[in-house]
Amino acid sequence: MPLNPRITDWSGRVVWLVGASSGIGLATARRLHECGATVVVSARNASALAAFEAAHPGSLGIALDATDREAMRAAAAQIVGRCGRIDLALYCAGYYHPVRATAFDLDEMLRHEQVNYVGALYLLDAVLPVLLAQRSGHISLVSSVAGYRGLPNALAYGPTKAALINLAQALYLDVQPLGLGVSVINPGFVETPLTAQNEFKMPALISPEEAARAMLAGWAAGDFEIHFPKRFTRFLKLLGLLGDAAYFKIIRRATGL
User: Which of 21, 81, 131, 206 would be 48's cystine partner, CB 3.0–4.6 Å?
Assistant: First the structure.
C-alpha cells in the first residue's frame, strides 16, 4: 500500500529543486522537465541555473544560498507568484567533507549542519504554508544511507543525514493526514562532485541519471523512503539490525578504519 499519493503524471506540476546545479539535483531537474513538469531550480551557481533555463524552455532559475532564510522565503513567494502553486519541493543541497575525531574541526561540523540540515528547515519554513493552504503537494528531502548508522569519515556528514531521516518521519506523521506527501531519499554512492572526494573504491556506484530514475520511480510508487541502489542499500539495512559490537566489528573490517 503506498504511503503517499502516487505521482505518475508530471504534466503541469510545479516542482522546486533546491541544490540543482549539479549531481542528483541537476539530473532530477532534467528528468522532471522531460516528463512535462514546470521546473524551478535553485542553487548558488547562477551561471549553471542560467544554462539550465536556456536548455529547458519554460523552466526558471532562482539563485540563492540554501543557508539564507529570507532568500528561501522570497524564492517560494516568487514561484507562487509566477506559477500559482508548488506541487513538489525537493531539498537536495548538500555538503560533504571527510571529518574524523582525530582531526576535529568545529567549523566543518557546523558547515555540514547549516547546509545539510538547517537549509532543509528553511525550505520547510518557506513551503509548508503554501502546501498546507493548497492541502496538496509533496516535500522530499535528500538524505543518505550515511544517516542509517555511524560510519568512519562521516563524523560531520552522517549526523546531519540522520537528522533529515528523523525530520522526514516526524513531518510525515504531521502532514500526511492533511493531504500532503513526504518522502526521504537515501542514496548509496552516486557519482557527484561530493563523492569525488572519496579516496576509496565506492561499492555499487551509480550515475546521477540512475539516481533520478530511481527517485521518480519512488514517487510514482508512493514510497516514503526511496533508497537506491537496492543491491547496496538493502545490505546496509541488514547491517543496521545488528547489535553494536557486531556492527562496529564489521565496519572496521570493511573500511580498515
Answer: 21
